[in-house]
User: Fold these one by one.
Assistant:
Number 1:
Amino acid sequence: MSSANSVIILDFETTGLSPNMGDRAIEIGAVKLINGQVVDTFQQLMNPGFRVSSFIEGYTGITNNMLTHAPSCAEVIAEFCDFIADDNLVAHNASFDKRFLDAELERVNRTYRGEFACSLLVSRRLNQQAPSHKLGDLVRFKNIANDGVFHRALADSQMTAKLWLLMIEEMEQQGIHQPSFELMQKISKTSKHDVAKLLERYR
C-alpha cells in the first residue's frame, strides 16, 4: 500500500479539450508531496508548434508570445517524466490531465509507472454538501488560503494539493489512520450512497 500523502499533484493548461483532436499541452505544473510536505515543484511553459486561440490566451493568461520563447513540448514532457519517476499521480478531473500526459509522452516514447487518482471524484464523495466541485469553488467552500490565481498550472496544482491534504486530514479526524492512495482511488469509484459504509470499514 502506498501513502495518499506522498504523491505528485499535476495540472496541464492546454490548447483545447482533446489530444485526439490535435490539442496540445502548453503548460505543466506539479507539486511533489512526501508525507504531506511539499518537497519540490515543477513548472514549465511548452511550445505546441502552432498559435493558440485568443480564447485560450484570455482563459489562461498564456500568450502566443510567451509560447514562442518556450521549449518544445517534447523537451518539457521528457523532463517532466524524469520528475514524476515512479510516483503516484493526482489531478483535479484526472481523466483530462491523464489524456494529455499520455498523449505527450507517447510522442516521445516515454511512459510512467504510477497510477492516477482524481481529487474531483474523491471530493464528490467526501464533500457531498459542496455546491460545486470545480477547483475554485471548492477552495472557497473549504476556505483554503489562495492568491486568487486560477487556470495557471502550478497555481492550480498547489490548490489541488491543499484540497487533497485537507481531505486526508478530515478522514484522519474521522478515525481513518494514514489513508492509502489505493483507498482514495476506491473512494472515487464508490457511489455516493455507499461511501459511508466503505469508510466505516477502514476506521
Number 2:
Amino acid sequence: MHPTPSPNAYKILVVDDDPDIVELLEYNLRKEGYHVASAPDGRKALEIAPPFGPDIILLDVMMPHLDGIDTCRQLRAMTRFKETYIIFLTARAEEFSEVAAFDAGADDFIAKPIKPRALMSRLAAYVRRDHDTQAVSETIEINGLTIDRTGFAVFQEGRKISLPKKEFELLAFLAASPHKVFGREELLQNIWGNDVFVLARTVDVHVRKVREKVGDHHIQTIKGVGYKFNAD
C-alpha cells in the first residue's frame, strides 16, 4: 500500500485506551488535514484497520484486551499492512524495550506525554520520505536478488519476498552500494532520517530480520564498523 502524494489524503488510525489522548490526537491530526479513525484497544484496531486502510498507525503499547506489541505483529501478518507506517506511543519508556517494538515490526516510537507539534513534524517527515522514495524508479539486480525500488518488492529466484518498508529500504540502500561499509549512524541517518529518533541497535534488529527473509550471506557484518552488502 502506497500513500497518495498529498498529506491531506493520508489516513491515520489512532489506537489508545485513553480517551483524552485520542481526542487530542484526533483534533490535531484533523486540523492538519489528515483523515482519522480511532480504536480503544488492539482488538478493535484489527477490526477497523482493514476497511479504513490507514497509511500510518499510532499504536499505544499498554492496552486492555490486546496490547500494542501483539497488535503490531498481527497487523504485519496482513499483506496490506506490511508497508504501513506503525508508530508506537508509550508512557513507560523506562520499562519498554525498543527492540521489542522494532522486532514486532514498528517503524518508530514516541514517548508520552505527546507534544502535538513534535508529532506533526514527525508525521510530515514520513510523508516527505514517501515522496522521495516514490521518485526513485530503478531496479537493482545483484547476487541473486531483484530489488524493485518503485514496487517495494524483492524477488529471489522468481520468488517474491515481502519486507516491511524500513527493512526494504535498508536492503535497497545497502545493495545500491555493494562492498561499501556503512556505520550504524550513517544507516540511521539515511534510512530513518534526522527527524526520527531511534537508537543504533535498531539497525541491528532490522538487519537480523532482513537476513531471516533473504538469507544470511547478503548483508555482511564488519565488526566494530557496521554493515555492507555482499555482492559475491
Number 3:
Amino acid sequence: MTENKAIIDAGWNFDNSYARLPNSFFTRQSPTPVRSPKLILLNDSLATSLGLNIQALKSKDGTAVFAGNQIPDGALPLAQAYAGHQFGYFTMLGDGRALLLGEQITPLSERVDIQLKGSGRTPYSRRGDGRAALGPMLREYIISEAMHVLGIATTRSLAVVTTGESVIRETDLPGAILTRVAASHLRVGTFQYVSNWGTAQDVRTLADYTLQRHFPEVDPDEHRYLFLLQQVIKRQAELIAKWQLVGFIHGVMNTDNMALSGETIDYGPCAFMDAYDPATVFSSIDQQGRYAYGNQPNIAAWNLARFAETLLPLLHEDKAQAIKLAEDAISEFSDLYHHHWLAGMRAKLGIFNEELQDESLIKDLLGMMQKNRADYTNTFRALTFDKLEDTGLSGTAEFAQWHELWQARLGRQQEPKDSSHQLMRSSNPAIIPRNHRVEEALEAAVLREDYSVMERLLDVLSRPYAHSPEQADYSTLPEPSNCSYRTFCGT
C-alpha cells in the first residue's frame, strides 16, 4: 500500500492512446528489472512542467520507476514496432532497447510520451541485449537539453539511473537507463512499417492518429492526408534549418530517426561542428559521409519522400495523381528549408530586412570560414561583439572587403546598430556542447563516478545566449590533435 501511494504522489497521470491502436503496431512488454538502480540525474524543471513531484521522484520508489523495477499506476508499457532505411537500406526495426511507459497528461493538458531507454530486451532487439551504457545516455541528456535551450525542437531527458549492472560493448561498461520525454515517438519508420506489413486501413488509422495527436487543427473539409504530409514537411524544414544554423550534426538520419512531430530524436553519434566544413562527419559508422553536415537538408528531403510513399493510397485513388500530389508537396521542402535557413543567417549577421545580395554575402563568409578552418560558433560570436581579430579571418584583403560590404549592408536598413547587435546576440550562441567538453564530462562520470564536471557543463549550457564571462572557458577550442573526433551510436 505504501509503495502504491508513493508512486501516485509522484504525480504520474498516464493515458495510453497508442496502446489503443491495432495490436500489430506494438508489443506489450514490461521492463526487465535491474539489480541496484541509483538516480544520478533528474531534470527538476522538466519534471515540474510535467506535473511531477520532485521529492517523490528522488525517493526509492521514484528511482524504481525510472529503472523499470516498478510500473506506475496507469502505465501500460509497450515496445513500438517500426521499420526504416538505415544508410539507405530498408529493414524491419522497432524498440529494441526502449519501452513506452505511457503518455503523461501535463497540468496544461499536453500529452507527452514517457519512454525508458535501455530497459531490456524486446521482440525487436535483433540479438541485442536491450541495455544501454552510461556514456551514451549521459550524452543524450547533455545534447538534448542543450538543444532545448538553443530553441530547437527536441525530445527531452527527464532522468538517468545507473543499473548496478555492466553492459558489454567493446569492453565492460556501467549500465544505465534514460527516461525520455517526447511529443510522441511516431516516426517516418512507423509509417514504413505499417505500410509494408499492415493493410491500407492500418495506414489510414495511423495517419488519423498522427493528425489527432500533432495536427488537430486540420480542416475536416481539407484533404487531410495531404495536409498531414505538408505539415510534416514544414516542421522538418524548420528543424533542419535550425540544426544547420548552430552547426549541429545528427550523425544518423535514418528514416526511423525522423520524428513526425518535428522534434530532434535519437541522439546517437551526434556532435557540434567546430571548424566550418560542410563535409564534417563525426559518426564512426558513416564511412561515406551520407549524413555529413552539408548533406542533412538533402537527406531530410529523401526521408520525407519515403514518408510520402507510405501515404500514396490515402492521397488519391488514382496512383498517378497520388504520386503527383506527393511530388508537389516534397518539392516544397527545398524552398521552405532555404527560407528558414536564409532568415536565420540574416539574423546571425544582424540583418532585419531582405536584399537579393544577402545570400552571396552569407556564402562568401562561409567560404572564407571553410578555407581558413575558422570555428563556426566563435566566428559569429566574434562578429557579434566586433572582435574581428577573434574570427580567424582578419588580416586578409578578402575579409576586409567582405566586412566593408557587410557594414554597408547594415547601414541600408532602418534599424539602428544597437538593434542589430541585440539580434546577433540572440541568434549566435556564446557556447555549444563542445565535443571535448562533452567527452571530459562523460569520462569523469563513467570512469570516476564524478558527475560534478557534467553538472557544471549543464549549468553553463543552460544559458547559451547569456554571453557571460563564466562561459569563456567553455568556448575555447580543443588542443590540436592528429586524430579526428569520432562519435559512436552507443548500441
Number 4:
Amino acid sequence: MTNEDELLLRRAIGLAGSAREGGNPPFGSLLADAEGKVLVEERNTVLTDGDITAHPELKLARWAARELDPETAAATTMYTSCQPCGMCAGAIERAHLGRVVFALSTEQLTTLKPPVTVTGARLDGPALFEEARVPVEGYY
C-alpha cells in the first residue's frame, strides 16, 4: 500500500462518516483513475433513498460501467471503507474495475455489529433447462 493509497482510503473512510452523519449506514467509496485522480465519490444511502441496493460500491460500479470504456475501467482503483459485499463484488467484476482497496474486512466489520439473524430465501432449481436455454444459447 502506497502513501497515495492511504490518503484515498482515508477519504473513503471520511465518506463513511458523512454517510452516518446523514442517517445512513457508515460506508463510503471513491473511484480513482490510473494517476490517482478521484473520478467519483459515493456514500451509502440505503435509508435516505429507501433502496436496499444503494451501497456506494454498487453505485460506483454502475457509474463506471456506464461512463468508462473497459480499458479505462480496468485501470481504476476503488477505495472503500469496508470490503464489498457479494452484491457489490459482482457489480465490480462486471464493471471490469481493476483494483479494490478496502479498510475493514467483512470479518472485522462483523465484530463491530450486533449479530443479525437472517433467514435466506429458499432457492428451488435448476428447472426447465431445455426451455430456459433457448434465449441464452448463442448469446455469449
